[in-house]
Amino acid sequence: MNKPTGDTSKPAQDPSGAAGKDPSAADPEEDFRLVGLAKAGDMRAYDELVVRHQGKIYAMIRNMVKNDADAWDLSQEAFVKAWQALPRFEARARFSTWLFRIAHNVVYDWARKRKIESAGELNDEIFDRNKIDASARTAPAFVESPDDALVNSELREKIEEALAKLTPEHREAVILKDVQGLSYKEIADVMDCTLGTVMSRLFYARQKLQALLKDEYESR
Amino acid sequence: MNTNPDETRLALWLDDELEGAKLAEMDAWAADKPDQLAAREELRSYRAMMVENVPASIEPPFPDFFLSRVNQGIRDIRIAEEKAVAPVAAPARSFWRSWLMPAAACVGMVFAFGIGKQSREPAQKLTVVPSLAPAVYTPEEGVDAEWFSSSNAGATVIVLQGVSAIPDSTDFSETVYVPTARESDRTATRDAGKSNSAQQ
Lengths: 220, 200
Hints:
The structure holds two protein chains of two kinds. In chain A, 62% of the residues lie in helices and 1% in strands. Chain A has eleven helices and one strand. In chain A, helix 2 crosses helix 3 (43-65), helix 4 packs across helix 5 (95-113) and helix 5 (95-113) packs parallel to helix 9 (184-191). The termini of chain A are far apart. Chain B has a domain at 7-53. At the A-B interface, strand 1, helix 3, helix 4, helix 7 and helix 8 of A face helix 1, helix 3, strand 1, helix 4 and strand 3 of B. Strand 1 of chain A pairs antiparallel with strand 1 (58-59) of chain B.
């Protein structure tokens, strides 16, 4: 397998910026306009939609599957599936929320294919950063540059470690709510569950995160 | 608000999702409840910490190649869909066509056989028309190649799947043909040829 080398992965926004600063989140009307063009067969419009949202989708999937190569492949799969489903997209929700839902399904389908799922719950062993899917179409190798190492603060590493200790459902709820800034209703749509389930997952996930990050909390 | 809010309303208030009249109602209810106000502040602090430290958006590595792969995936689906379209059903044959066509086919076969026997010309070689689409030849069985091109990036990438791992001990210099100075210098070769002919 040919492996492209080098790390070009970088935050697409200021790390201190909230999810709301993302240009795609700031202008959903532009998304709807591009969706209309893409539905009419304009591939350039779809390319623009991919470029506008690839950062969020890649970040969300990367946080879920915990390895870069699989996240890279799965993000592409999500955009291909979104293109297939585009005729069925109705502007009742934000395009980004709709994409998150597709990304969610892609990740869970991928997990099922690995056949390590048990009793309807995803087994966290499959979301192991060191286990790259052998069937991954391409596995880019990532070498952290000194600049990125500086950006990746100690706290960020601790948070990522703490997130990794959550169950996949709890982790996804936290990522969608506290990182991506989705509302409870949008998370319920993405995860295909009730509002109550979202609240319950968030409550327990945050409780566990607070326990794991207790020292960081107290020092703030 | 005289009565306690339900869990949903409380969770939405704690997460700053309420607006307008509902928010004002909840704020009035929580005004004399320092524990609830503290819980909301703690949640705000936690969310700020998450936003500061976990990026909501990360540009995928090799973004041009990423987009090229998405486009390739869409093209593959289009091709598969075109192939999946069922052929149009043939119209019902008339009585005359049902016996006339086999008879015409038999006459044609006899005619072709006769022509074939008369002509003794050697069979011409088949000419293979090269495909206009780029094709990547992989000599090793079981190796698939995918071809991607990005005019914007000015790059062409060939992804090989199924290639066995190359051992670290491989010396690539042994696999590369390096022409000698004599081979690479055309003038030298031509001069050498001239000198040979002069000697003869």
